[in-house]
Design brief:
alpha+beta; two-stranded antiparallel ribbon
């Protein structure tokens, strides 16, 4: 669990290039207490935002993803690279973010980024704790931020 004191601190979690696109979740009040991470979809369904704190990090990290146009609308199964949930193109797809003005990076994820809820449901159904799964999920988020975007997720 972590706390964000102000809107300024919240927006500073994002890279400067992404701050202009961030729309705070409706009804957000500060201080904001976040259990593992916070994710939300913009009102237009075009962007998905993520704020998390890596296990080894002192500050929150924000990523503004774009839901890229999904080419194949058939019912072929896909798998989220973070929580390994399976679903169709309307549930799991490519989320991308700008690396710089010329390059984008992306990853196949749950389009609503509700990975932790899915992990908790699976753990509950199997009678085990979801603590390790949640930690591993945060580590995958940090790895994407570090390797994909060059964000130092260890500070």
């Amino acid at each position: 669990m972590f706390q964000i004191q102000s809107e300024k601190e919240f927006l500073n979690a994002f890279r400067s290039r992404d701050r202009k696109t961030v729309e705070l979740p409706k009804g957000t009040r500060f201080p904001l207490f976040v259990r593992d991470y916070l994710s939300w979809v913009d009102p237009y369904g075009v962007r998905v935002f993520l704020v998390f704190k890596a296990p080894s990090n002192a500050r929150p990290i924000g990523i503004a993803f774009r839901r890229d146009q999904q080419g194949d609308k058939t019912l072929h199964g896909r798998m989220c690279e973070w929580c390994h949930a399976n679903g169709t193109a309307d549930v799991i797809g490519l989320l991308t973010t700008d690396l710089d003005s010329k390059r984008r990076v992306g990853v196949n994820l749950c389009l609503d980024l509700r990975c932790n809820e899915r992990l908790e449901t699976m753990a509950n159904m199997s009678g085990r704790s979801a603590v390790d799964d949640s930690k591993e999920l945060l580590e995958k988020m940090a790895r994407f931020a570090s390797e994909g975007l060059g964000i130092d997720a260890s500070r």
